[in-house]
Each structure stands twice: as structure tokens, then as C-alpha cells.
Design goal:
The protein is α+β, with helices and mostly antiparallel strands. It is built from 15 helices and 9 strands. It folds into 2 domains: about 220 residues, Rhopdopsin 7-helix transmembrane proteins (Up-down Bundle), CATH 1.20.1070; about 180 residues, Reverse transcriptase/Diguanylate cyclase domain (Alpha-Beta Plaits), CATH 3.30.70. The protein has a 5-stranded mixed beta sheet, with helices on both faces. A two-stranded antiparallel ribbon has the order 1-2. The chain has a two-stranded antiparallel ribbon with strand order 6-7. Strand 4 and strand 5 form a beta hairpin. The longest helix is centred in the middle third of the chain and has 38 residues.
Length: about 425
């Protein structure tokens, strides 16, 4: 195999790829000097390059450099890379953990067996490097639930593969030929492992950069999908996700439509900053009572919508009533004074309405008009046969309530986007 795979050539390629990575990451760091992640990665790649070059000069440099300093630098490089991943996952870097492998290596250097046995040296450094690689992969994998980036599995797999190759070096050094048989002679298994490590080093850096790009893309997408004031979904995002949920849901689903009562009066009396505060506290009150599979959004000025899967009309009415009571206890403090907040809620469910979003919105809207017309701070359920045209015409309603419904309809249409 040595005829086809020349270890010194592999090490030159390894060193060059590490140097290129160090220069590229350093250039990014120069543009973003506050980035701890890029700073650690720059030093990790630079130290890895130094260690590879010194180790490649094994035949001509002193033993303490080729067998002591170079592998120690390699361990430090991988330790820093692990901590760079920790920073990527939102943790504080632990430089003690990053340097622990190197410290262990230098302690081993002081023992007689270190100088007497190349098998011991190979097994020890393989164990240190393999453990650092697996810890990096584990860090990426654990972040999957919190931030499900598409390339996480690939990145974690690459780091664990690096660990597996290092552990194979550990096994090979104990059970097979020594990695270095004689000057200029290398074990075939060690040459192959070195080639795989070279490829995986490049892949590990590339996948981490891909994850960073995916994070930026995800953040941009979330900004586009979120209402900037309340951080809830906006109307476009709600419509997209609600339609998809209704298509795949076989059980009944319910839509709750909320409208804050007398919100214009709050704005006119206390100012728009006060109105914004009410909106934020109202949104937080609702969001604190959401379950994981519910969809909550701000779809208009003071209008909010919540899609509840696996809920029929009766269950949805109970949920809406609990929400209404929770809002009653919300007293926003504005200029040292308490401002009471109430909400009207319209409810519609697919056990009474066609299972798609537009009919649900229309039905919940009718129920909401009814709640407004009958005095506000109430929950009303859409009844089959009810229509907005009928309500506005005053069908089955006292004249005063019909007038309230018409007034609410005019105000609502004026305030809704689009």
C-alpha cells in the first residue's frame, strides 16, 4: 500500500488543508473581531498546522519535538475545536478542557514507558484525539432538539467518524504492527487511517461552517415569520403552517380568534407605546398557556389566532374560556396606573365547519362579531347556519347588538392588513 499511499505526502496535504482553513477562518475573524467562535477556530487550525508540520519533520527534528511537542499541539488543536463547537452551541468555552489532553500528554512524556514504546505513544495520543473528536460530535448532536439544523446529523457523524478512526489507530497500535516500523517504513493500516483523518479534518471544518450558514438562514427565516412586537408568528406564517396542519390532521381541529376589547381607547387615552405594551403582555399571557402543537399568531392589529389540533367545538370553547379568564387577570401598568384588559373570542371547529383554514377563519370571525355585539369579554361559538351577512342584517339579534356588530365590522375591516 505504501507504493500507492505515501505517508509524508498525506501529511503535506493535511498540513496544507489545515493552513488554508486557518487562513480562511482568520480572514472571517478579521471581519468579525467580536466572534469568539471564529477566534478559537483560527487558533485551533493554526496550532493543528504547526503540529502537523513538526510531526512530518520527524526524521530531522529532536525527539522532544516530533514525539512530544507535535502530538501535544495536535491534542490542543482538537481540544480547541471541541470548545469552538461548544461556543457555537451557546456555551462558554472551557480552556481547561481544551488543554487537558495536552497536559496529560506532557505528563506521559515524563514517564519511562513513553520514551521506550512507540506503541504506548500511538495508543495514548489516539485515545486523547478520539475522545476529543467524539465529544465534539456529541456537542453537535445534543443541540439538535434545540435547533434542528438540516446538517447537524452530518456534522455530528463526521466528528464521530474522526473519533472512530482515532480509536482504530488505538486498536491497531495494540494488536497490529507499530505505526512506524523503521525510518521511512509505515504500517499500511496507519497510512490508511492518516488518509481518512486528512479527509475528515476538512469535512469537519466544512460542516461546521455549513451549520453556521444554516443558522443565519434560519434566523432570517424566523425574522420573516415573526411579528416584531410580540415575537409570535405573523399572519403569513400562521396561514402557511395552519393549512399544512389541517391537511395532515384527521381529528377535529379548532380555531380561536381573539380581539382585545376597546384597544383603540387604550391607544387614544394612553398613547401607542402603552398600546404596544398591552399587546406584548397579552401575547405573553396567551403564549404561556400554549401547548407544543398549538399555533398562535398575531394576524392583525389587536387580533390574534390560535389553531388547536385534536379539539372539537366543546373542548375549544373550554380552552377559549380559560384564556378569556386569564386575560381578565392581566392588568397592564401604564404610567403607574393599572389598565384592565379584556378579550372577546370567537370559536369554530372542523366538527362543524369544513376542514380548511378559510372556512374556519370565516366561521370564527362570525362568532367573534357575535361576542363583540353581545357586550365583549365573552366567548362565542360558531353555530351552523350563522353568517356575517345575517348578523350585520340583525337576524336573531336585538337592534343594539346589531348596531354593535356593524360598528365592530367597520373598525375590524379598517384595521386588518390586506
Amino acid at each position: 500500500m505504501n507504493h500507492f499511499l505515501h505517508l509524508p505526502t498525506i501529511m503535506v496535504i493535511h498540513a496544507c488543508s489545515t493552513l488554508i482553513s486557518a487562513l480562511l477562518i482568520a480572514n472571517l475573524w478579521r471581519q468579525r473581531r467580536t466572534s469568539v467562535l471564529l477566534g478559537i477556530l483560527t487558533f485551533a487550525a493554526a496550532i493543528g498546522f504547526f503540529g502537523t508540520v513538526v510531526h512530518a519533520m520527524r526524521p530531522i527534528v529532536p525527539f522532544w519535538m516530533s514525539a512530544g511537542l507535535a502530538p501535544g499541539a495536535g491534542a490542543l488543536s482538537l481540544g480547541l475545536f471541541w470548545q469552538a463547537i461548544a461556543v457555537f452551541e451557546g456555551k462558554r468555552p472551557s480552556y481547561f478542557r481544551a488543554t487537558a489532553g495536552t497536559l496529560i500528554w506532557f505528563v506521559l512524556y515524563l514517564t519511562p514507558i513513553f520514551h521506550a514504546s512507540i506503541m504506548f505513544r500511538t495508543a495514548a495520543i489516539a485515545l486523547i484525539m478520539g475522545t476529543y473528536s467524539v465529544l465534539g460530535g456529541r456537542e453537535i448532536w445534543l443541540g439538535m432538539r434545540r435547533e434542528p439544523l438540516p446538517s447537524r446529523k452530518l456534522a455530528a457523524g463526521v466528528h464521530c467518524a474522526r473519533g472512530a478512526v482515532w480509536y482504530s489507530v488505538l486498536v491497531g497500535s495494540l494488536l497490529l504492527d507499530p505505526a512506524y516500523k523503521a525510518p521511512g517504513q509505515y504500517a499500511d493500516w496507519f497510512v490508511m487511517a492518516s488518509l481518512l483523518q486528512t479527509l475528515l479534518v476538512m469535512l469537519s471544518i466544512i460542516t461546521l461552517l455549513i451549520l453556521a450558514l444554516e443558522r443565519d438562514e434560519r434566523a432570517s427565516r424566523l425574522v420573516a415569520e415573526r411579528d416584531p412586537l410580540t415575537n409570535l408568528r405573523n399572519r403569513r406564517s400562521f396561514v402557511e403552517h395552519a393549512e399544512a396542519l389541517l391537511k395532515r390532521e384527521s381529528n377535529p381541529s379548532a380555531l380561536l380568534l381573539f380581539d382585545i376589547d376597546h384597544f383603540k381607547r387604550i391607544n387614544d387615552t394612553h398613547g401607542h407605546a402603552a398600546g404596544d405594551k398591552v399587546l406584548m403582555e397579552f401575547a405573553a399571557t396567551l403564549e404561556g398557556r400554549m401547548q407544543a402543537d398549538w399555533l398562535l399568531a398575531r394576524i392583525g392589529g389587536e387580533e390574534f389566532a390560535c389553531l388547536v389540533p385534536n379539539a372539537g367545538t366543546a373542548a375549544a370553547a373550554d380552552i377559549a374560556e380559560a384564556m378569556r379568564r386569564a386575560v381578565e387577570f392581566l392588568h397592564a401598568t401604564i404610567d403607574g396606573r393599572f389598565v384592565s384588559v379584556t378579550v372577546s373570542v370567537g370559536v369554530a371547529a372542523t366538527d362543524e365547519v369544513a376542514p380548511s383554514l378559510d372556512p374556519l377563519l370565516a366561521a370564527a370571525d362570525v362568532a367573534l362579531y357575535l361576542a363583540k355585539a353581545e357586550g365583549r369579554n365573552a366567548v362565542r361559538i360558531h353555530q351552523p347556519g350563522q353568517s356575517l351577512r345575517g348578523l350585520l342584517a340583525g337576524d336573531h339579534m336585538p337592534p343594539a347588538a346589531a348596531n354593535q356588530a356593524r360598528a365592530y365590522a367597520r373598525a375590524s375591516r379598517a384595521n386588518r392588513p390586506g
